[in-house]
From TrEMBL:
The keyword Transport applies. The keyword Transmembrane helix applies. Pfam families: ATP_synt_H. GO terms for molecular function: proton-transporting ATPase activity, rotational mechanism. It is found in: Membrane. One of its GO terms (cellular component) is proton-transporting V-type ATPase, V0 domain. Keywords: Hydrogen ion transport, Ion transport, Membrane, Transmembrane, Transmembrane helix, Transport. Its main location: membrane. Belongs to the V-ATPase e1/e2 subunit family. It is a multi-pass membrane protein. It comes from Seminavis robusta. This is ATP synthase subunit H. The chain crosses the membrane at residues 12-30, 42-65.
Length: 77
Protein backbone atom coordinates (compact mmCIF):
# COMPACT_ATOMS: atom_id res chain seq x y z
CA UNK A 1 0.00 0.00 0.00
CA UNK A 2 2.75 2.48 0.90
CA UNK A 3 4.69 1.80 -2.30
CA UNK A 4 1.94 3.65 -4.22
CA UNK A 5 1.93 6.69 -1.91
CA UNK A 6 4.89 9.05 -2.52
CA UNK A 7 7.42 9.18 0.31
CA UNK A 8 7.09 12.96 0.98
CA UNK A 9 3.36 12.54 1.66
CA UNK A 10 4.00 9.78 4.20
CA UNK A 11 6.82 11.76 5.83
CA UNK A 12 4.79 14.99 5.98
CA UNK A 13 1.74 13.20 7.33
CA UNK A 14 3.78 11.59 10.08
CA UNK A 15 5.28 15.00 10.87
CA UNK A 16 1.84 16.56 11.29
CA UNK A 17 0.70 13.62 13.43
CA UNK A 18 3.75 14.23 15.63
CA UNK A 19 2.90 17.95 15.74
CA UNK A 20 -0.64 17.08 16.84
CA UNK A 21 0.61 14.81 19.62
CA UNK A 22 3.04 17.48 20.79
CA UNK A 23 0.19 19.99 20.96
CA UNK A 24 -2.01 17.53 22.84
CA UNK A 25 0.90 16.88 25.20
CA UNK A 26 1.18 20.62 25.80
CA UNK A 27 -2.49 20.82 26.65
CA UNK A 28 -2.20 17.79 28.93
CA UNK A 29 0.84 19.33 30.63
CA UNK A 30 -0.98 22.62 31.13
CA UNK A 31 -3.89 20.74 32.65
CA UNK A 32 -1.58 18.74 34.93
CA UNK A 33 0.23 21.85 36.16
CA UNK A 34 -3.01 23.68 36.79
CA UNK A 35 -2.73 26.40 34.16
CA UNK A 36 -5.94 25.18 32.49
CA UNK A 37 -9.08 23.83 34.04
CA UNK A 38 -11.01 20.85 32.67
CA UNK A 39 -13.21 22.84 30.27
CA UNK A 40 -10.31 24.85 28.85
CA UNK A 41 -8.30 21.67 28.31
CA UNK A 42 -11.20 20.07 26.46
CA UNK A 43 -11.47 23.08 24.17
CA UNK A 44 -7.68 23.08 23.76
CA UNK A 45 -7.74 19.44 22.66
CA UNK A 46 -10.34 20.20 20.00
CA UNK A 47 -8.48 23.29 18.80
CA UNK A 48 -5.17 21.41 18.53
CA UNK A 49 -6.76 18.57 16.56
CA UNK A 50 -8.64 20.86 14.17
CA UNK A 51 -5.62 23.13 13.68
CA UNK A 52 -3.31 20.19 13.01
CA UNK A 53 -5.73 18.72 10.48
CA UNK A 54 -6.20 22.10 8.79
CA UNK A 55 -2.44 22.71 8.52
CA UNK A 56 -1.89 19.19 7.19
CA UNK A 57 -4.65 19.61 4.60
CA UNK A 58 -3.25 22.96 3.46
CA UNK A 59 0.25 21.48 3.18
CA UNK A 60 -1.08 18.43 1.30
CA UNK A 61 -2.98 20.58 -1.22
CA UNK A 62 0.08 22.78 -1.80
CA UNK A 63 2.32 19.72 -2.25
CA UNK A 64 -0.08 17.95 -4.60
CA UNK A 65 -0.52 21.08 -6.74
CA UNK A 66 3.23 21.23 -7.28
CA UNK A 67 3.73 17.50 -7.83
CA UNK A 68 2.60 17.26 -11.50
CA UNK A 69 1.82 20.75 -12.75
CA UNK A 70 -0.73 20.93 -15.57
CA UNK A 71 0.80 24.03 -17.13
CA UNK A 72 4.45 24.04 -18.13
CA UNK A 73 6.30 27.36 -18.05
CA UNK A 74 6.93 29.01 -21.41
CA UNK A 75 10.27 30.76 -21.71
CA UNK A 76 10.52 33.61 -24.20
CA UNK A 77 13.86 34.57 -25.60
Amino acid sequence: MFDVIPTPIVTGTLGYILLCFLGLGGVFGSRAVGVMDKDEAAIGNVVVCIASFGMWLFWLCAWLHQWHPLIAPIYEE
